[in-house]
Protein backbone atom coordinates (compact mmCIF):
# COMPACT_ATOMS: atom_id res chain seq x y z
CA UNK A 1 0.00 0.00 0.00
CA UNK A 2 1.46 3.32 -1.00
CA UNK A 3 1.46 6.13 1.53
CA UNK A 4 -0.19 8.42 -1.00
CA UNK A 5 -3.27 6.19 -1.25
CA UNK A 6 -6.39 8.02 -0.12
CA UNK A 7 -8.97 6.82 2.39
CA UNK A 8 -12.12 5.48 0.79
CA UNK A 9 -15.33 7.48 1.12
CA UNK A 10 -17.70 5.73 3.58
CA UNK A 11 -19.95 3.35 1.66
CA UNK A 12 -17.43 2.75 -1.11
CA UNK A 13 -16.38 -0.86 -1.73
CA UNK A 14 -12.75 -0.83 -0.52
CA UNK A 15 -11.74 -4.50 -0.28
CA UNK A 16 -12.78 -8.01 -1.29
CA UNK A 17 -12.08 -11.12 0.76
CA UNK A 18 -12.61 -14.84 0.33
CA UNK A 19 -12.74 -17.45 3.11
CA UNK A 20 -11.99 -21.01 1.96
CA UNK A 21 -11.23 -24.51 3.28
CA UNK A 22 -8.02 -25.02 1.27
CA UNK A 23 -5.99 -21.82 1.53
CA UNK A 24 -2.84 -23.06 -0.22
CA UNK A 25 -4.77 -24.57 -3.15
CA UNK A 26 -6.82 -21.38 -3.55
CA UNK A 27 -3.65 -19.27 -3.57
CA UNK A 28 -2.26 -21.43 -6.38
CA UNK A 29 -5.47 -20.99 -8.40
CA UNK A 30 -5.63 -17.19 -8.18
CA UNK A 31 -1.88 -16.79 -8.41
CA UNK A 32 -1.91 -18.68 -11.71
CA UNK A 33 -5.06 -16.94 -12.96
CA UNK A 34 -4.34 -13.30 -12.07
CA UNK A 35 -0.61 -13.26 -11.38
CA UNK A 36 -1.15 -12.49 -7.70
CA UNK A 37 1.60 -12.81 -5.12
CA UNK A 38 0.78 -13.21 -1.44
CA UNK A 39 1.76 -11.70 1.89
CA UNK A 40 0.60 -13.22 5.21
CA UNK A 41 -1.45 -11.35 7.81
CA UNK A 42 -3.02 -9.78 9.73
CA UNK A 43 -2.59 -12.60 12.26
CA UNK A 44 -5.79 -11.69 14.15
CA UNK A 45 -7.81 -13.09 11.23
CA UNK A 46 -6.24 -16.55 11.59
CA UNK A 47 -4.51 -18.04 8.54
CA UNK A 48 -4.95 -15.14 6.11
CA UNK A 49 -3.04 -13.71 3.16
CA UNK A 50 -3.26 -10.50 1.19
CA UNK A 51 -2.95 -10.77 -2.58
CA UNK A 52 -0.58 -8.33 -4.26
CA UNK A 53 -0.34 -7.23 -7.87
CA UNK A 54 2.77 -5.23 -8.76
CA UNK A 55 3.25 -4.58 -5.05
CA UNK A 56 -0.28 -3.26 -4.51
CA UNK A 57 -2.77 -5.10 -2.27
CA UNK A 58 -5.88 -6.10 -4.21
CA UNK A 59 -7.70 -8.82 -2.22
CA UNK A 60 -7.59 -11.11 0.81
CA UNK A 61 -7.96 -14.87 1.20
CA UNK A 62 -8.39 -16.60 4.54
CA UNK A 63 -8.84 -20.04 6.04
CA UNK A 64 -12.47 -20.67 7.02
CA UNK A 65 -12.67 -21.88 10.65
CA UNK A 66 -14.45 -25.25 10.90
CA UNK A 67 -17.09 -23.79 13.22
CA UNK A 68 -18.03 -20.97 10.84
CA UNK A 69 -20.96 -21.75 8.58
CA UNK A 70 -20.29 -19.09 5.96
CA UNK A 71 -20.68 -19.49 2.19
CA UNK A 72 -17.52 -19.88 0.10
CA UNK A 73 -17.95 -16.57 -1.68
CA UNK A 74 -16.12 -13.38 -2.54
CA UNK A 75 -17.30 -10.75 -0.07
CA UNK A 76 -17.04 -7.00 -0.69
CA UNK A 77 -16.14 -4.73 2.23
CA UNK A 78 -17.73 -1.29 2.35
CA UNK A 79 -15.74 1.53 3.90
CA UNK A 80 -16.75 3.22 7.15
CA UNK A 81 -15.20 5.75 9.51
CA UNK A 82 -16.84 4.07 12.53
CA UNK A 83 -17.42 0.32 12.44
CA UNK A 84 -19.40 0.25 15.68
CA UNK A 85 -21.79 3.00 14.56
CA UNK A 86 -22.28 1.19 11.24
CA UNK A 87 -23.08 -2.03 13.15
CA UNK A 88 -25.84 -0.19 15.01
CA UNK A 89 -27.14 1.27 11.73
CA UNK A 90 -27.21 -2.19 10.13
CA UNK A 91 -29.32 -3.55 12.99
CA UNK A 92 -31.67 -0.58 13.11
CA UNK A 93 -32.20 -0.70 9.32
CA UNK A 94 -33.17 -4.38 9.33
CA UNK A 95 -29.87 -6.19 8.73
CA UNK A 96 -27.93 -8.64 10.90
CA UNK A 97 -24.35 -8.39 12.18
CA UNK A 98 -22.88 -11.89 11.98
CA UNK A 99 -19.23 -11.32 12.98
CA UNK A 100 -17.69 -8.41 14.89
CA UNK A 101 -17.08 -5.59 15.10
CA UNK A 102 -13.55 -6.80 15.81
CA UNK A 103 -10.01 -5.48 15.45
CA UNK A 104 -7.67 -6.82 12.76
CA UNK A 105 -4.51 -5.75 14.56
CA UNK A 106 -3.08 -2.45 13.36
CA UNK A 107 -4.77 -2.90 9.96
CA UNK A 108 -8.26 -1.77 10.98
CA UNK A 109 -11.61 -2.86 12.36
CA UNK A 110 -14.21 -4.98 10.60
CA UNK A 111 -17.56 -6.68 10.72
CA UNK A 112 -19.45 -9.12 8.53
CA UNK A 113 -23.18 -8.61 8.08
CA UNK A 114 -26.23 -9.83 6.21
CA UNK A 115 -28.70 -7.54 4.53
CA UNK A 116 -32.45 -8.15 5.07
CA UNK A 117 -32.55 -10.55 2.10
CA UNK A 118 -29.58 -12.57 3.41
CA UNK A 119 -26.70 -11.36 1.22
CA UNK A 120 -23.35 -11.29 3.06
CA UNK A 121 -21.13 -8.20 3.00
CA UNK A 122 -18.30 -6.78 5.09
CA UNK A 123 -17.60 -3.36 6.58
CA UNK A 124 -14.04 -2.04 6.96
CA UNK A 125 -12.81 0.80 9.17
CA UNK A 126 -9.30 1.49 7.91
CA UNK A 127 -6.30 2.10 10.12
CA UNK A 128 -2.97 1.11 8.55
CA UNK A 129 -4.68 -0.88 5.79
CA UNK A 130 -6.72 1.44 3.57
CA UNK A 131 -7.96 -1.24 1.19
CA UNK A 132 -7.42 -1.98 -2.47
CA UNK A 133 -4.24 -0.24 -3.58
CA UNK A 134 -4.79 -0.16 -7.34
CA UNK A 135 -7.73 -0.47 -9.70
CA UNK A 136 -8.54 -0.88 -13.36
CA UNK A 137 -5.59 -3.06 -14.33
CA UNK A 138 -6.03 -6.78 -15.12
CA UNK A 139 -6.24 -8.85 -11.93
CA UNK A 140 -7.95 -6.17 -9.84
CA UNK A 141 -11.57 -5.98 -8.61
CA UNK A 142 -13.38 -3.28 -10.58
CA UNK A 143 -17.05 -3.59 -9.61
CA UNK A 144 -19.45 -5.19 -7.13
CA UNK A 145 -23.08 -6.08 -7.86
CA UNK A 146 -25.73 -7.29 -5.46
CA UNK A 147 -27.81 -10.04 -7.07
CA UNK A 148 -31.11 -10.26 -5.19
CA UNK A 149 -34.82 -10.97 -5.74
CA UNK A 150 -35.99 -7.37 -6.08
CA UNK A 151 -34.19 -4.08 -5.67
CA UNK A 152 -36.72 -1.84 -3.91
CA UNK A 153 -36.64 -3.01 -0.29
CA UNK A 154 -33.01 -4.12 -0.11
CA UNK A 155 -31.77 -0.90 -1.76
CA UNK A 156 -33.57 1.05 0.97
CA UNK A 157 -31.50 -0.88 3.54
CA UNK A 158 -28.18 0.07 1.95
CA UNK A 159 -29.38 3.64 1.48
CA UNK A 160 -30.34 3.74 5.17
CA UNK A 161 -26.94 2.45 6.33
CA UNK A 162 -24.58 4.14 3.87
CA UNK A 163 -26.50 7.09 2.44
CA UNK A 164 -26.40 5.98 -1.20
CA UNK A 165 -28.24 7.79 -3.93
CA UNK A 166 -30.16 5.46 -6.25
CA UNK A 167 -30.13 5.59 -10.04
CA UNK A 168 -32.74 3.07 -11.25
CA UNK A 169 -33.20 1.74 -14.76
CA UNK A 170 -36.79 2.52 -15.72
CA UNK A 171 -38.00 -0.67 -17.38
CA UNK A 172 -41.02 -2.91 -16.98
CA UNK A 173 -38.97 -6.11 -17.20
CA UNK A 174 -35.52 -5.12 -15.90
CA UNK A 175 -35.10 -4.49 -12.17
CA UNK A 176 -31.72 -2.79 -11.85
CA UNK A 177 -30.27 0.25 -10.13
CA UNK A 178 -26.89 1.85 -9.55
CA UNK A 179 -25.80 3.03 -6.11
CA UNK A 180 -23.94 6.35 -6.07
CA UNK A 181 -22.02 8.43 -3.57
CA UNK A 182 -21.57 12.11 -4.44
CA UNK A 183 -22.76 11.20 -7.96
CA UNK A 184 -20.00 8.59 -8.36
CA UNK A 185 -21.26 5.06 -9.19
CA UNK A 186 -19.93 2.64 -6.55
CA UNK A 187 -22.04 -0.54 -6.90
CA UNK A 188 -25.20 -1.93 -8.48
CA UNK A 189 -28.23 -3.92 -7.42
CA UNK A 190 -29.85 -6.41 -9.81
CA UNK A 191 -33.25 -7.88 -9.00
CA UNK A 192 -33.62 -11.21 -10.80
CA UNK A 193 -36.78 -12.55 -9.15
CA UNK A 194 -37.12 -16.31 -9.61
CA UNK A 195 -33.90 -16.29 -11.64
CA UNK A 196 -31.93 -16.30 -8.39
CA UNK A 197 -29.85 -19.50 -8.04
CA UNK A 198 -31.74 -21.61 -5.50
CA UNK A 199 -28.55 -22.94 -3.92
CA UNK A 200 -27.02 -19.50 -3.44
CA UNK A 201 -29.76 -17.03 -2.58
CA UNK A 202 -29.12 -13.27 -2.67
CA UNK A 203 -25.38 -12.56 -2.94
CA UNK A 204 -22.77 -9.99 -3.89
CA UNK A 205 -20.83 -10.62 -7.11
CA UNK A 206 -17.28 -9.28 -7.53
CA UNK A 207 -16.04 -8.35 -11.01
CA UNK A 208 -12.32 -8.69 -11.80
CA UNK A 209 -10.76 -6.91 -14.76
CA UNK A 210 -8.92 -9.14 -17.27
CA UNK A 211 -7.18 -8.48 -20.57
CA UNK A 212 -8.80 -11.44 -22.37
CA UNK A 213 -12.11 -12.84 -21.12
CA UNK A 214 -12.18 -15.91 -23.34
CA UNK A 215 -8.57 -16.81 -22.54
CA UNK A 216 -9.25 -16.33 -18.82
CA UNK A 217 -12.27 -18.64 -18.98
CA UNK A 218 -10.14 -21.35 -20.60
CA UNK A 219 -7.52 -20.88 -17.89
CA UNK A 220 -10.15 -21.15 -15.14
CA UNK A 221 -11.15 -24.59 -16.46
CA UNK A 222 -7.51 -25.68 -16.82
CA UNK A 223 -6.92 -24.74 -13.18
CA UNK A 224 -9.87 -26.77 -11.90
CA UNK A 225 -12.60 -24.13 -11.86
CA UNK A 226 -15.86 -24.08 -13.78
CA UNK A 227 -17.85 -21.82 -16.07
CA UNK A 228 -21.19 -20.66 -14.64
CA UNK A 229 -22.15 -18.29 -17.44
CA UNK A 230 -20.18 -18.29 -20.71
CA UNK A 231 -18.50 -15.23 -22.17
CA UNK A 232 -20.90 -12.66 -23.60
CA UNK A 233 -20.85 -9.01 -24.62
CA UNK A 234 -22.69 -6.54 -22.37
CA UNK A 235 -23.08 -2.84 -21.85
CA UNK A 236 -19.80 -2.56 -19.93
CA UNK A 237 -17.70 -4.94 -22.00
CA UNK A 238 -17.17 -8.64 -22.53
CA UNK A 239 -17.67 -10.75 -19.41
CA UNK A 240 -18.11 -14.28 -18.08
CA UNK A 241 -19.08 -15.71 -14.69
CA UNK A 242 -16.90 -18.50 -13.35
CA UNK A 243 -16.13 -20.30 -10.08
CA UNK A 244 -12.90 -21.36 -8.43
CA UNK A 245 -12.29 -25.01 -7.38
CA UNK A 246 -14.13 -24.48 -4.05
CA UNK A 247 -17.14 -22.97 -5.82
CA UNK A 248 -16.62 -19.25 -5.13
CA UNK A 249 -18.26 -17.43 -8.03
CA UNK A 250 -16.87 -14.27 -9.63
CA UNK A 251 -17.17 -12.43 -12.92
CA UNK A 252 -14.27 -11.59 -15.21
CA UNK A 253 -14.72 -8.56 -17.44
CA UNK A 254 -12.78 -6.71 -20.10
CA UNK A 255 -14.17 -3.22 -19.70
CA UNK A 256 -14.95 -1.09 -22.71
CA UNK A 257 -15.04 2.15 -20.71
Automatic annotation (TrEMBL):
Pfam families: Glyoxalase_6. CDD domains: SgaA_N_like. Residues 12-126, 140-255 form the VOC domain. InterPro entries: Anthracycline_SecMetBiosynth (IPR052164), Glyas_Bleomycin-R_OHBP_Dase (IPR029068), Glyoxalase_6 (IPR041581), VOC_core (IPR037523). This is VOC family protein. It comes from Streptomyces triticagri. The lineage of its organism: Bacteria, Bacillati, Actinomycetota, Actinomycetes, Kitasatosporales.
